[in-house]
Design brief:
By secondary structure, this protein is mostly beta strands. The protein has two helices and 71 strands. Among the domains are: about 40 residues, no CATH class; about 80 residues, Seminal Fluid Protein  PDC-109 (Domain B), CATH 2.10.10; about 140 residues, no CATH class. It has a nine-stranded parallel beta sheet with strand order 50-48-45-69-67-65-62-59-56, with no helix packed on it.
Length: about 850
């Protein structure tokens, strides 16, 4: 036997194993090796599995953070549309909010989640215009002054800096609103009438009444060097200057300083002034809606203005006597046109007069009386929309046709932002776009993501999303950041979104119906832009959309009309799922001047037909049934009826109970001279007669007409004549769901405006049929629209894509959004 030796010493216990034992050992070694290999493989597998789980967790957390960010956008939109920012922290024009969720929000995952929000220019559509001593005001700027009473004033001069409206002793800078100070080409003026024109006061000096003559025409007007609410010892008065002292108007007859009225050597009082025609006088033929003030109060005094409620010739006493005793007058401010009511549901922007102050609704409500600051603001609304009558200074921003523009020059008046590129730049201008390589200094102005920004701290390569260095101007912007973290902190993911906000359009289509749209004959449907000028020539485009969303074929029928634009109809429910529309052999659908036949590439399966709730809420009939519905002043009709106040701050409200028919000799013409809301609790019928029925919207007018019943504009009437030729100045709203006929047939006057009838159940819906050619410049939207055997001549105004209208709730929407993936680009949020 071989013996093993160790260190030269023989060990009898140590010997080689037997063959069988050696076999068992080999198996063991193989097993051990296999186990080792298996262990290594298992460890690798566990590592891979763990990594996969971590990736899966990150993917899940990323998805959660994205959902949270999108939820944040929705929450911000809710606040815009409700105008409810009560849960937000407000600093200047910025609103911030953090929303933290419990760990049980996502079941047993234990995720920690939150949303951080920041909204720049959260109040862009609800700006208060409160007077500030450091702001330079321009002609037509409107402010409220924080006094008691709180009065709204309109600037009549440019360069109006630190001129306190309440202590200003003359009318050289501010005039109370909404008193009719502004000259209008459509008003017939009489001797002694006084107006303001381009910052200068004029008195009508011609014995013959007339209209349309500019105040600069010395045949009819005389300029007034000074028009003062009180005499001032230090003022140098020129001949024909006017002052109001102790309830009497005085006219300066000799230039002087320091001689107080009634000194007859320098002043003519009362009837010798001669009259300022704002003051009530005996023997004057007053018409419905004329305004006068009671001579016992000051011109800027509150509660002194009166509105004529019935045509009459004034007399010294009795029913035709002076206000307030005369029964033909109502208080123009605290009368029913403006009075607050406890039972009415007020909507955003509604204006009332309560106590001795004006109030504007800032949060929809019922029975929350002013001065409750949660629901009412004493300041008027400041508009960001471009106004041709205002003077803009360098770096002012305005919104026009959905685009925000930056003024690059001072003294910028009546310069269209689209065409006057010397005065305005839009955000696409490369020279003004933010650049990471540029070193910006304070008061640098740049565009970024369609928004203008002002640099408030010098920087380089810091994006305008950073509010420490930049301030957003005008346009509302939402930043929403969703954060999700796993319980052990192994994964924290943040998703940040940036979105621009605008108000949803009501008329993105030329003609839109939620059931069917039928064009039964020829005619032309095309587009133009009213802000660029009148229709015709180069101002004719191919952007008109005919849309219907009914699922019963055909949704859209075009028999032989030439359509310069598009058609949108739902797809069929069976293959090949083509749009359910039909067209005749003479129909044309084209996007070019030489287009012939139907271009099927211009047919879409995705009709978009926005139809929002009408105001007042619940419908016009229900509103009339409610007590104290603030529908305004009862309409008193005559052969010619004037409504509205030129240059007024807010629309004047009028109502008519029952069916209103315009035709014949007694009730024929309504002139709308200022912003007007008219509620008709019945039908509106315009008919032929001697003379014909007619509504004129004059150059200073605009009309929001609500009809509870049916609209009938018959052949032979003169229809609605919108002299402004701006379709945004007229909206006809009928919210009835009745089956009564809705018809516009007269073709005498082209229709410049929009028609909105979302609920009518008549078999033809809104019917447009006439023996003459009716031309519509604007847009129509209804449940059903039918051109029955007559030509469809509809010219869509593309500026309606961005227009908002009173009387319909147009919500805010997101117009553009993207994720901020670059850390350097992200905004700092709470």
């Amino acid at each position: 036997m071989l013996r093993a030796r160790l260190g030269g010493v023989s060990d009898p216990t140590l010997q080689f194993p037997s063959a069988s034992f050696r076999l068992r050992g080999s198996v063991t070694l193989v097993a051990l090796c296999f186990v080792a290999v298996l262990g290594i493989g298992l460890a690798s597998y566990l590592a891979v599995t763990n990594q996969s789980m971590m990736l899966s967790n990150r993917s899940y957390v990323t998805g959660v953070s994205e959902q949270l960010a999108e939820t944040g956008l929705e929450q911000a939109l809710w606040s815009f549309n409700q105008n409810d920012w009560s849960s937000w922290t407000i600093s200047g024009t910025t609103a911030k909010r953090t929303i933290t969720f419990p760990s049980t929000k996502y079941g047993s995952s234990g995720l920690t989640t939150s949303i951080n929000l920041r909204v720049d220019n959260y109040n862009a559509y609800n700006l208060s215009a409160t007077w500030s001593s450091t702001t330079t005001y321009r002609i037509n700027d409107l402010v409220g002054y924080n006094g008691s009473p709180y009065i709204w004033y309109r600037s009549v001069q440019n360069g109006n800096l630190n001129k306190n409206p309440s202590t200003q002793t003359d009318l050289a800078w501010w005039v109370p609103a909404p008193v009719p100070w502004v000259w209008s080409s459509n008003i017939t003026y009489s001797q002694y009438d006084v107006v303001n024109y381009s910052g200068i006061w004029y008195r009508y000096s011609n014995a013959a009444s007339s209209s349309g003559n500019l105040p600069t025409n010395t045949t009819y007007w005389t300029s007034i060097p000074t028009l003062s609410l009180s005499w001032n010892n230090a003022t140098a008065y020129a001949v024909n200057a006017f002052v109001y002292s102790s309830g009497v108007w005085y006219r300066c007859t000799t230039a002087h300083t320091g001689h107080a009225p009634p000194n007859a050597a320098y002043w003519n009082p009362g009837s010798a002034a001669p009259y300022i025609s704002w003051e009530w006088r005996s023997g004057i033929s007053y018409l419905f809606n004329d305004l006068v003030y009671n001579s016992s109060g000051g011109m800027a005094g509150v509660g002194t203005w009166y509105r004529c409620t019935a045509d009459h010739t004034s007399a010294g006493s009795g029913a035709n006597g002076p206000p307030p005793a005369g029964s033909n007058w109502e208080n123009a401010l605290s009368g029913p046109m403006w009075a607050w009511s406890s039972s009415y549901s007020y909507n955003l922007g509604d204006v009332v007069y309560s106590g001795s102050s004006w109030y504007r609704c800032i949060l929809a409500h019922t029975n929350q009386g002013p001065p409750n600051a949660t629901y009412w603001s004493t300041a008027p609304l400041k508009s960001n929309a471009w106004d041709s009558g205002k003077q803009y200074n360098q770096y002012d921003t305005v919104s026009y046709n959905g685009v925000w523009y930056l003024s690059i020059l001072n003294n910028n008046t009546n310069q269209n932002p689209v065409t006057a590129t010397t005065y305005w730049v839009d955000p696409t201008n490369v020279s003004y776009q933010w650049n990471a390589a540029t070193a910006y200094t304070t008061s640098s102005y740049v565009s970024y993501g369609g928004v203008w920004y002002d640099c408030i701290s010098a920087n380089t390569n810091i994006t305008p999303n950073n509010a420490t260095y930049w301030t957003a101007l005008g346009a509302p912007v939402i930043y929403a950041e969703g954060t999700a973290t796993l319980p052990n902190g192994s994964a924290t993911i943040k998703t940040q979104l940036r979105a621009r906000v605008a108000q949803a359009p009501l008329f993105p289509n030329a003609a839109a119906a939620t059931t069917s749209l039928t064009l039964g004959a020829g005619g032309t449907v095309d587009s133009y832009d009213s802000t660029a000028g009148v229709y015709g020539g180069s101002n004719i485009g191919y952007s008109a959309v005919l849309a219907a969303s009914g699922t019963t074929s055909p949704a859209v029928t075009v028999t032989s009309t030439t359509v310069k634009g598009y058609v949108a109809a739902p797809s069929a429910s069976t293959t090949p799922y083509a749009p359910i529309w039909t067209y005749g052999g003479a129909a044309v659908l084209t996007g070019t001047a030489s287009g012939i036949g139907v271009d099927l590439t211009r047919v879409s399966r995705s009709p978009y037909i926005p139809q929002f709730d009408t105001l007042p809420s619940g419908g016009l009939t229900a509103a009339f049934a409610a007590s104290n519905f603030p529908k305004g002043t009862a309409l008193t009709l005559s052969a010619t009826t004037n409504l509205g106040t030129p240059g007024a701050t807010t629309p004047s409200r009028y109502y008519y109970s029952g069916n209103l028919t315009l035709s014949g000799s007694s009730t024929t013409i309504i002139n709308i001279n200022g912003p007007v809301i008219l509620y008709i609790n019945g039908d509106l019928t315009m008919d032929s007669g001697t003379p014909n029925g007619k509504i004129n919207i004059n150059s200073t007018g605009s009309a929001e007409i609500h009809i509870a019943g049916r609209l009938t504009v018959n052949i032979g009437s003169d229809g609605i004549n919108n002299i402004t030729q701006d379709p945004k100045k007229l909206i006809l709203i009928c919210d009835t769901s009745a089956s009564s006929v809705q018809n516009y047939s007269d073709g005498t006057s082209p229709v410049y405006g929009v028609i909105y009838m979302p609920n009518t159940t008549n078999s033809s819906g809104l019917s447009l049929d006439t023996s003459t050619t009716i031309q519509i410049y604007g847009a129509i939207s209804a449940k059903k629209i039918t051109y029955s055997g007559v030509d469809a001549n509809l010219h869509y105004d593309t500026s309606l894509r961005y227009a908002t209208f009173g009387g319909v709730e147009q919500p805010c929407i997101i117009t553009e959004w993207r994720e901020l993936t670059d850390p350097a680009e992200r905004a700092a949020l709470p």
